[in-house]
């Protein structure tokens, strides 16, 4: 019994419309898992992996009903999987349905709101180009590396995990393009950075900055560290969060599932900032969808409302 056979089983037991939604959500989760936790298979996850995925959906502006469907689809997948484990037809270590331990009861902003745009306008935080410049000025050491990281996130809209997994060979400095790999999926894409990063990128790759890190000689990744061949998502988020604190822009708005503070300004904020800046600069929403790697256009459309709010504010300041 394989992943695809379980998917087929679910398709055969549901009406067409429900089956399509379930299968799409299961595949989307499996692709997300491959990108964020490449060493973990869909049969190895625990409830924390699922809560993280659902929380990311919330941050990306999905409605309560969409998140509920994802949760139900995954629950159905694991129920089917457990049947085959018990029958000896699926050789994986799966003892219980991990979805049963998922707790979204404290997500008060999901209970009655059904309009995705309204949710997103309230949840999404983004920075203006001027604020990003100030953020760059406040990054800590190593200054050149951290400035390059912040500017790349803002200019490309990459997810933090995507930048972490970017390899030197994925960067073409002549065309200023970066290849983004979505493991086990067909949504690989190319993003581009601006000519303003040429000097920084050249200094990092060819000016001795990257090579000064001991693990760099054996690392295929664009950003190694002093201790590791690959920088972590946590380190990048800390770079952004600390810089935001230095400029007096950081806020704490709650705690995560482990009791750690949740900050308003994170690495993901720069992805939101890119999206809003791209729309304001004239990029159409379909092109933005492709640049961000969104599977659904409705996820990208969240940013239309945010860009429109800036236009309204600009008109309100006119004195004519």
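-> sequence recovered:
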């Amino acid at each position: 019994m394989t992943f695809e056979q379980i998917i087929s089983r679910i398709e055969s037991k549901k009406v067409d419309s429900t089956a399509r939604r379930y299968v799409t959500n299961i595949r989307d989760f499996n692709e997300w898992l491959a990108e964020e936790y490449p060493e973990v298979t869909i049969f190895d996850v625990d409830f924390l992996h699922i809560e993280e995925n659902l929380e990311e959906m919330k941050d990306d502006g999905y409605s309560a009903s969409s998140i509920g469907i994802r949760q139900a689809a995954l629950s159905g997948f694991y129920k089917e999987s457990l049947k085959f484990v018990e029958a000896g037809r699926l050789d994986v270590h799966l003892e219980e349905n991990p979805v049963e331990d998922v707790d979204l009861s404290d997500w008060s902003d999901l209970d009655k709101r059904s309009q995705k745009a309204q949710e997103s306008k309230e949840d999404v935080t983004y920075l203006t180009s001027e604020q990003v410049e100030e953020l760059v000025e406040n990054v800590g050491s190593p200054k050149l590396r951290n400035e390059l990281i912040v500017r790349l996130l803002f200019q490309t809209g990459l997810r933090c995990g995507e930048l972490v997994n970017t390899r030197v060979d994925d960067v073409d400095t002549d065309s200023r393009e970066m290849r983004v790999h979505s493991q086990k999926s067909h949504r690989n894409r190319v993003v581009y950075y601006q000519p303003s990063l040429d000097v920084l990128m050249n200094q990092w790759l060819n000016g001795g900055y990257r090579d000064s890190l001991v693990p760099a000689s054996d690392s295929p990744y664009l950003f190694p560290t002093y201790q590791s061949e690959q920088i972590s998502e946590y380190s990048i988020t800390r770079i952004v969060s600390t810089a935001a604190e230095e400029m007096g822009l950081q806020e704490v708005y709650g705690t995560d599932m482990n009791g750690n503070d949740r900050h308003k300004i994170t690495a993901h904020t720069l992805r939101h900032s890119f999206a809003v800046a791209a729309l304001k600069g004239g990029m159409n929403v379909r092109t933005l969808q492709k640049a961000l790697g969104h599977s659904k256009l409705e996820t990208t459309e969240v940013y239309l409302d945010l860009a429109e709010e800036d236009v309204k504010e600009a008109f309100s300041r006119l004195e004519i």
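Confidence is low (pLDDT under 50) at residues 111-122.
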